[in-house]
Amino acid sequence: MSLSRTPFLRGIYDALPLLGGYIPVAISFGLISTQSGFDVLETILISIFIYAGASQFLFVAMMSAGTPLWLVIAMTLLINARHVVYAPNIAIYLPQSRWWPWLMHGLTDQIFALSLTSLPRMPENARMGWYTGAALLAWLSWIFGTALGAVAGEELTARWPLLGEVMPFALPALFLVLIAPLFTSRIWIITLGATTILAFLLKLFGYLNAAIPLAAVSGAIIYYLIQRQDEQNAK
Amino acid sequence: MPNDLWIALIISAVGTLLMRLLPLIWMQRHLARRKSQEAAAEMPTWLSVFGPLMIAAMFGVSLVPSSMTPEAWIATAIGSLSTLTVWWFKRSLGWPVFAGVVAYGFVTLAS
């Protein structure tokens, strides 16, 4: 895209593919939340402030089932615990600004993946504008989708059932585009391939919440084993 | 809004924000310390390995279709191949994703 666009607009442009994944899932969340007994305002507030897909579904399910409060909070935070490794990974690319701590609210799985691959390729003075544009678009689309689902989710899913089925493919497509350039050497081909397959199998067998951290940790172990093997062979 | 919901919402929201924010502050301090010691401002190696692996894990998880029918698997395979093919030629972000979604949609509609 043209470099003459401001970094903020460039961030919005780069985050556009996320909408295909965010809006249908947010509509589902809005619908499920209102069906679970939350009103429209409560549903939107959950999306504004917690802003973490999977944990929001669990949050409304547990709250509506009357689960003890401490358990609702503990499970919500446990599911979001994978987020602790995101900010340190991109910190080296972030120029000094007192706004970063607040902007971290927008650091979802997808914004992290997008940032990790995009930030190193842009000048330092463009990074904050780019991140703000991308994260803001993603956050607003999540809130918009939630509101839409809470107000008119039933009509939407009845009228366009295929839309909700097709658009979420934007997420695997986006992740594929983000990891494809990383297959640069034998060690990364093996490690990234093994991590993808392991996460896929864990999700397939029902371990959705453990799949991402467990696969990534296993991938890291594989990386170090290969690295050690290569070092021994070199001696 | 019932009090229980407020309490759970506020604690979960603040907790999630802190999990995204505190590691940033820790890492910024780590980098500043290295800079003051005139060492290269590098992140720990394990972190630079972990980042790409998290993306690979997210990709693996997102590949499993919500309805596990043969049609959905075929659509996923064709959608992924289309994405990869367009990426190979364009080396950009938007068009490959668009092509993948269109291919996935065509297969879903046709089946």
UniProtKB/TrEMBL annotation, chain A:
It is a multi-pass membrane protein. Its main location: membrane. Keywords: Cell membrane, Membrane, Transmembrane, Transmembrane helix, Transport. The keyword Nuclease does not apply. Coiled coil: none annotated. The chain crosses the membrane at residues 12-32, 131-152, 158-180, 210-226. InterPro entries: Brnchd-chn_aa_trnsp_permease. It is found in: Cell membrane. It comes from the Bacteria. Belongs to the AzlC family. This is Branched-chain amino acid transporter AzlC. It comes from Sneathiella chinensis.
UniProtKB/TrEMBL annotation, chain B:
Keywords: Membrane, Transmembrane, Transmembrane helix. It comes from the Bacteria. The chain crosses the membrane at residues 6-26, 46-66. The keyword Transmembrane applies. Pfam families: AzlD. This is Branched-chain amino acid ABC transporter. It comes from Sneathiella chinensis.
